[in-house]
Every structure is written in C-alpha cells, then in structure tokens.
C-alpha cells in the first residue's frame, strides 16, 4: 500500500467531466495533490447544448476559466415552433428562459477546465475505483487499471466522486438505499447535426412539441446545431431493450413524420455518437460520508430540464475548494460546511428540474394547449416587456445567477 509521504494532502477525484475537472483544478489551487481517475480511455469532446447560467459563470471566473468558455449564441437567430406538416411560427425558445447565460456545448466547459489543470495533476485514463475503505485519517481506495487489468490500493485524505448519474463512488461509499435514482418517466436523446436543418438558417432554433414528446434543435453562431429528443414513457427499461433509433421511431410514430422530423431521425441514426438515456434525479440525504464527497450529477443530478447541471457542477467544485481552505485540518467539517451552504440552492433546482419538464415536453394535450397560448401571448408587445423583466428580475433568474461561493463568504 502506498503511504502519504508529503505534508500536502492528497485527493482522489473520480471522473473527468465538468464537475471532476473543476474539482481537480480547485483542489490543486487549495494546496492539494490531485489524482484523477477516468473510466474512458481518453477525453471525450463536443457534446450537446448547454446553457451556462450566472452561477456557473461566477464559479468559472473564480476558477480562472471563464475567459476560455465561449458564448456561441447568435443574437440574429429565431426560435420556431414547428409541426409535422411543415407549418412554422415564431415561438418561445431557450433564449426566453429566466437568467442570462452563455450558450456552449458541454465540451467547451470541459476543455476550458482541462486546459487550466496543472501538469502535476495526475490523470489516469481507463482506470476506476473498485472498493473504498475509510477510517478516521484517510481512505484506502482499490484502483483498477482497465488496460493492464491490475489492481492497486492507494491511500487518500479525500475522495471526490464526480462520476456522474450512475456514480461508482456513490455505490461504494453510500448505503444501497441511497443509490436509487428517481426516474422522471422521460427519455432523452441528444446528438450533433453535421449541418443546419434543411429550410432553416443555421442560427435558427426549432421546437416540435406534441403531447408527451418533443424535439428541440439548438443552434449556435459558429458550429452546427445539436438536437434533443425528449419523450414520456411508462416503461423506461423497455426503452433500453432495442437500439436507440428503434425506440425513438416508436416514440415519434406511428404518424408520418413529415420532412423535418424524418430528417432529424435519419440524422440521429447516422450520427457517429449520441446520448440516449432516461432522465433521472439523484436525491441523497447527505452528499458526503466521512472523507468521501460526491459532486455534480453523482450527488444531485438535476436533469437537463433544470438547465443547471453544469453550473452547479462548477459551483459545487468551487465551493468545495473554499470550504477545504476554510477548514484546512478538518476534512469532515469542510464537507459539512460545504453541504450546508449548497443544500437549499440545489434543492430549489431539483424541484425546478421536475417542474420544467413541461416547458421542454408537454406531458399531455392540456399542457400543449397552455404552451401554445403562452407562445401566442408572447408575441404581444406587453408580454415582450414582461419576458425581458422575467429574464433578469424573477426569483428563478436570481437562483440561476447566485454566486454560491461568494454568498458563503
Ligand atoms: C441533453 C442534455 C442537455 C443538458 N443541458 C444543460 C444545460 O443547458 N445547462 C446545464 O447547466 N446543464 C445541462 N445538462 C446537464 C449537464 O450536462 C450535467 O449536469 C453535467 O455535464 C454533469 O457533469 P458531471 O461532471 O457531474 O458528470 P458527467 O458529465 O456524467 O461526468 C462523469 C465523468 O465520470 C466518468 N466516470 C463514470 N464512471 C466512472 C468510474 N467508475 N470511474 C472513473 N470515471 C468514471 C465518466 O466517463 C465521465 O467522464 C444537460 C444534460 C443533458 C444530458
């Protein structure tokens, strides 16, 4: 077993997504030696559309990476509500959501944080934790190298589980009943288009919303759009029993697709990679146990419907560093303080992840009708003023802009 021979404390970060990379960066800045394990054989690139709100931007600024996170929004873009027959109307899009934001793809934030990592941060790809045993002073972690198929045990002062919705660290360190995720009864599929949607400008966004299913095309100023399919299901497991494209074609059938939806489904089938998953939240009584802490989707997966997963991943990592600096010799106290400051904010966004489902995908005919009434009203000049005010002054806008580490200070 390796022993810790330096006086610097040693942290293991599991996962090289937004939350893990930001945690590694912030912990290093707080004076920790950092080792990162990533299951994948190499870094992933690109990814789907993400709106980074004020909370995430403030954290990115403190992490020193905000300048490297672009804003790919195109102010000349329009958002259209479309239907299968090809009818289009101007409607409310992502840009109308409360809170100012930067539009990026997930890889933009990961790249910005990764580029800022110091050389001393040791990154091990194709490597996973397989067991954790902690005592008062530290955590012994059994680590498996998937390439060489060898296992070693190393000791750390802190383990950060930033390994996403289906976190291994959560499974290894928390009781089995804490490991149940909460399915929202919706499936999501996301991928990148190679080119703009035929018949639309590259900067235009599209939404096709029907009871229980929707498709969104998110556009950018300087790269092809990304697409999100989101649909309701009563049987999540059944959706995984066949290729993703078959589940999508079944969910968006049996009616004729029309040209745009048909083209989007064909593009999904041809895409070199895609995400296909069920929308699930993580609800934990605590996000830490002793010297093990979960950050980001591993701890509180809000789902894409909240629009705050990336922002809270960055903010959670940033605040973790602040609290470890505040309690330099007492990791459990730092983790308690961290959770206490973060909890009310995350609970708010967990609730909004549930309520905002209907903004993305109306559950039924009634919600669809409501959506078209709101869309219709939004074209009135008075509503435009109200929308502009909501964007900056509403409670939701404030919760999306809260600078968590500054508030904790
Ligand atoms: C379609 C879609 C749209 C979204 N839109 C938005 C948005 O507009 N705004 C927003 O803020 N958020 C959005 N989100 C949510 C946001 O993308 C996530 O909350 C965020 O990326 C989570 O980052 P993470 O680092 O916590 O987890 P992940 O991105 O899941 O990263 C986990 C990492 O851990 C690695 N890993 C997993 N298991 C292991 C293991 N056993 N050992 C080692 N490594 C492991 C994985 O390979 C991965 O690299 C969206 C999500 C989706 C799916």
TrEMBL record:
UniProt superkingdom: Bacteria
Family annotation (InterPro entries): FAD-bd (IPR002938), FAD/NAD-bd_sf (IPR036188), FAD_aromatic-hydroxylase (IPR051704)
Protein name: 2-polyprenyl-6-methoxyphenol hydroxylase-like FAD-dependent oxidoreductase
Pfam families the UniProt entry points to: FAD_binding_3 (PF01494)
Domain FAD-binding: 11-324
Transmembrane segments: none
Gene Ontology molecular functions: FAD binding
